[in-house]
Design goal:
The protein starts with a helix and ends with a strand. The chain is elongated, with a radius of gyration of 55 Å. With 653 residues, it is of the alpha+beta class. The strands form four sheets. Strands 2-1-5-4-3 form a five-stranded antiparallel sheet, with helices on both faces. A five-stranded mixed sheet has the order 11-13-14-16-15, covered by helices on one side. The longest helix is centred in the middle third of the chain and has 73 residues. The structure holds adenosine-5'-diphosphate (ADP).
Length: 653
C-alpha cells in the first residue's frame, strides 16, 4: 500500500466524514422535532377528550378511563381564561394551600388518641348517658367522647348501636359548624367501615357515592387530606369486595383514578399559581400557538387553539424525565447509524445525554436544537490516527476482497473447465456407444432379414440349406438378444439396487451356468479352460446381477485371448470371503488403461479391441455389481502376458 494511496484514502475518508457529520446533525434535528410534534398531537387529543367530558369524569358509571400521554405529567384546560379541567380545582383552589405535602390525618390514630384520652371509664359512661340527653354537643371534648363511645361500640362489634350513635352526629343540622371538617371525614369513614363490617357492601358503595356527591356540591373544601384519605380508603375497600360486578369494578376504578388525578393536578396548580397566571397571560411565542415556559424544575407547555365555543388553552406540565427519555430514545436510534462520527448532546447543566465527549478532540461545531434550546449538540474532529487506522482497515478489506474474488475466479474456471472436459468426454463416449450399439444391433438384424427374405422367396429349396439358414437366423437372434440383455442390464444397474431381489445363493452354481453357456465359443476359438467350482460358496446377492458380472468377465477373457490360450475360472471360499477369479493368457491391459476400462462405454483403443465386438459396458456393469454387493475388484495384467480379474465377496454361512 503506497503512501500516496493512504493520502488519497485519508482525503476521501475526511470528506466522507464531513458529509456524515452534516447528515447526523440533520437527522438528529428531524427526529427530535418529529417526536415533539407527536407529543403535542397526543396532548391535544387528550385535552379534547377532557373538554368533551369534564363533568362526567367524576360521575359513577360515566367516568371514562383516561389515557396518559408519555412525557406529560398533568393537563389543564382553560376556556376563555376559566379553568375547565380539573373541575374540582376551583373549590380546592380557594384554600390556597398545597396539600400533597401534609400527610392525611389517620382516623385510626385520632380515634385511638380519643380513646386513650377519654379512656376513663367513668367519663365514657357519663358521655353515654349524656349523649341522648344532650343532643347539642357543643364542646369538642364531648364530641371526642362521643366518638370514643362509638368507637367502643364498633370495637365490641355492636355495629347497629354504633351507627345509631353516629348518624345523628353526622347529619344533625344542629351540629353543623361545630364539627371540624376532619371530624366529619372521620365520621364518614367510620360510618363506611361499619357498613363494610356488617357486610352491607351495597350500602357501603352507595354511601361512598353519596359522600362524593355531597363533596362535589360543596363550595369550599377545607380539609383536603382527610377527604383524600376517606376516598382513597373507601375506593380501595370497594374494589376489594369479592362480589363486586365487573361493570361496577371498572366504574369505581375509573372514579378513583380520575379523582386522584384531579386532586394531584389541583395540587400542581396550587403550588405553581403564579407561573400558571403568567403562562395564561402570555401571548403564544410560536405561530402554531405552542410555547414552553420553565421556572426552576417546572416546565409548562402551552398550546392555544381557538374553538367554536371559545378560546381554548391547554397548559401541560412536562414530566422532565419521561419527556427527555422519550425523545432521547428516538435520537439513540439515529446515533446508532452514525457510530463513526464523534458527537455529544448535553443539557443546560452540562450533563451528558447522548454520545460521548472525547478527551482531546477539537470541537468542530456546537449548536442548540431548535426544538429544545437547552440541549447542546457538539460534533468533534476525528482523530487523525483513527482515520488512518480506518483507512488501513478499509484498504486491507479491499485487498482481501480482491484476492478472494481472484481466487474464486481461478478456482471457478478450473473446475468449470474440468467439468466441461469431463462432460465432453462423456458425451463422446455416449455417442460412440450409441453408434456401436446401433451397429451391433444392425449387423445381426441384417443377416436375419437377408436369410428370412431368401427363404420367403422360395429360393432355398434344399432341406439342409433351410436348416442351415434357420440355424443362422436363430444364432443371430440370440446374439441380438444378448446385446439387448447387456444394454438392459446396464440400465438396470443405472437405476440402482431398488430393482434387485436379494437372496442367499451359491456363486459356484451361478458361475458354472455362465461357463456352460459360453464354453463352446472359447473351445471353437481354440482356447482351453481350467475350472474350479468349489461347492457352497454362499453370498447375498441378486442372481441376475451376479450372472451378468460373471458373464462379462468370462466373455472378456474369451474375447481378448488369442488361440492357443488358457482361461482359468475359479470360485472358492477363502477366510470370510467368497472369491471369483478369471485368469487369461490374453492380450493384457496396459497399466495406464487399467483404471479407465471400468468407466461406462470405455473401450481400449488398440487393434485387438477394435476388431472385437463390444459396447464398453461390460466392465462398467462388473464394477457396479461389485459395488452394490460390497465386493472388491482386483486386477493384475501385463500387456502380452494376460490378465487376472479377481472379485472378493463377503461370504455368508
Ligand atoms: P467391451 O464391450 O469393449 O469388451 P468392457 O467394458 O467389457 O467392454 O471392457 C472394456 C475394455 O477393457 C475392452 O474394450 C478391452 O480393451 C479391455 N478388456 C476387458 N477385459 C479384458 C481382458 N480380459 N484382457 C484384455 N483386455 C480386456
Amino acid at each position: 500500500m503506497s503512501f500516496r494511496n493512504i493520502q488519497n484514502e485519508n482525503y476521501l475518508i475526511q470528506k466522507n466524514f464531513e458529509e456524515n457529520r452534516a447528515s447526523l446533525q440533520k437527522e438528529l434535528e428531524d427526529a427530535l422535532e418529529r417526536e415533539q410534534a407527536k407529543i403535542f398531537q397526543e396532548t391535544k387529543a387528550a385535552s379534547l377528550f377532557l373538554y368533551e367530558l369534564p363533568k362526567s369524569l367524576l360521575e359513577f358509571g360515566n367516568a371514562a378511563s383516561f389515557k396518559d400521554v408519555q412525557g406529560i405529567e398533568a393537563i389543564f384546560l382553560f376556556n376563555n381564561g376559566t379553568l375547565v379541567y380539573p373541575d374540582i380545582s376551583s373549590k380546592l383552589l380557594s384554600t390556597g394551600r398545597s396539600f400533597s405535602d401534609t400527610k392525611p390525618t389517620l382516623v385510626e390514630k385520632a380515634l385511638f388518641q380519643t380513646e386513650r384520652e377519654g379512656g376513663d371509664l367513668q367519663e365514657i359512661q357519663y358521655s353515654r348517658e349524656t349523649l341522648p340527653r344532650f343532643p347539642l354537643l357543643q364542646l369538642d371534648g364531648q364530641i371526642q367522647n362521643a366518638l370514643g363511645l362509638i368507637r367502643l361500640a364498633y370495637k365490641s362489634k355492636q355495629y347497629n348501636r354504633a351507627l345509631r350513635m353516629l348518624i345523628p352526629l353526622e347529619n344533625g343540622p344542629s351540629l353543623k359548624g361545630y364539627l371540624h371538617s376532619n371530624l366529619t371525614r372521620s365520621l364518614n369513614l367510620l360510618h363506611f367501615e361499619i357498613l363494610v363490617k356488617m357486610k352491607k357492601h351495597q350500602e357501603a358503595e352507595e354511601y361512598c357515592l353519596a359522600v362524593l356527591k355531597q363533596f362535589l356540591q360543596e363550595e369550599r373544601i377545607e380539609d383536603i387530606p382527610s377527604t383524600k384519605f376517606f376516598f382513597e380508603s373507601a375506593f380501595t375497600q370497594i374494589l376489594s369486595f369479592e362480589n363486586l360486578s365487573q361493570e361496577k369494578r371498572e366504574a369505581f376504578w375509573n372514579l378513583r383514578s380520575n379523582f386522584n388525578r384531579q386532586l394531584g393536578y389541583t395540587d400542581i396548580l396550587v403550588k405553581n399559581k403564579d407561573l400558571f397566571q403568567n403562562v395564561l397571560a402570555s401571548d403564544p411565542t410560536s405561530k402554531d400557538g405552542i410555547s414552553f415556559r420553565s421556572e426552576g424544575n417546572v416546565t409548562l407547555l402551552k398550546m392555544s387553539y381557538p374553538m367554536l365555543s371559545g378560546n381554548q388553552v391547554v397548559i401541560a406540565k412536562i414530566n422532565n424525565d419521561t419527556y427527555r427519555e422519550r425523545i432521547l430514545d428516538k435520537l439513540r436510534i439515529v446515533a446508532q447509524r452514525w457510530n463513526n462520527v464523534p458527537f455529544s448532546i448535553t443539557d443546560s447543566r452540562d450533563s451528558l445525554l447522548l454520545g460521548a465527549v472525547p478527551d482531546s478532540a477539537n470541537i468542530l461545531l456546537q449548536t442548540t436544537f431548535n426544538g429544545i434550546p437547552t440541549w447542546e449538540l457538539s460534533l468533534y474532529e476525528k482523530d487523525v490516527g483513527e482515520i488512518r487506522k480506518e483507512s488501513r482497515h478499509r484498504m486491507l478489506l479491499m485487498y482481501g476482497l480482491l484476492s478472494f474474488s481472484l481466487i474464486t475466479v481461478i478456482f471457478g474456471s478450473f473446475f468449470m473447465l474440468r467439468f466441461i472436459v469431463q462432460e465432453h468426454k462423456l458425451l463422446a463416449m455416449k455417442a460412440n456407444f450409441l453408434s456401436s450399439v446401433s451397429h451391433e444391433l444392425k449387423t445381426p438384424l441384417t443377416s436375419i432379414k437377408m436369410f428370412a427374405e431368401m427363404m420367403a422367396r422360395g429360393r432355398v429349396q434344399k432341406t439342409e440349406k433351410v436348416q442351415e439358414y434357420s440355424g443362422l437366423i436363430g444364432k443371430e437372434a440370440s446374439r441380438l438378444e444378448n446385446l439387448i440383455g447387456a444394454i438392459l442390464n446396464y440400465t438396470r444397474m443405472e437405476h440402482g439396487t431398488g430393482a434387485f431381489k436379494w437372496e442367499k445363493l451359491d456363486f459356484s452354481v451361478c458361475a458354472k451356468k455362465v461357463f456352460e453357456a459360453v464354453e463352446d465359443i472359447g473351445v471353437e476359438k481354440g482356447l482351453s479352460f481350467k475350472t474350479r467350482f468349489e461347492p457352497n460358496v454362499y453370498v447375498m446377492g441378486d442372481y441376475t446381477a451376479l450372472y451378468s458380472l460373471a458373464q462379462n468377465l468370462i466373455e472378456n477373457a474369451i474375447k481378448y485371448t488369442n488361440a492357443p490360450g488358457d482361461i482359468e475360472i475359479n470360485v472358492y471360499n477363502e477366510d470370510d470371503r467368497a472369491v471369483f477369479s478369471v485368469i487369461d493368457t490374453g492380450v493384457g491391459i496396459a497399466a495406464s488403461e487399467q483404471k479407465n476400462i471400468f468407466n461406462d462405454f470405455y473401450r481400449v483403443g488398440d487393434e485387438m479391441t477394435r476388431s472385437t465386438k463390444g459396447s464398453g459396458l461390460g466392465l462398467a456393469i462388473v464394477k457396479r455389481v461389485a459395488e452394490t454387493h460390497k465386493a472388491t475388484i482386483s486386477l493384475s495384467s501385463k500387456p502380452g502376458k494376460g490378465s487376472n480379474f479377481t472379485i472378493r465377496f463377503r461370504k455368508v454361512e
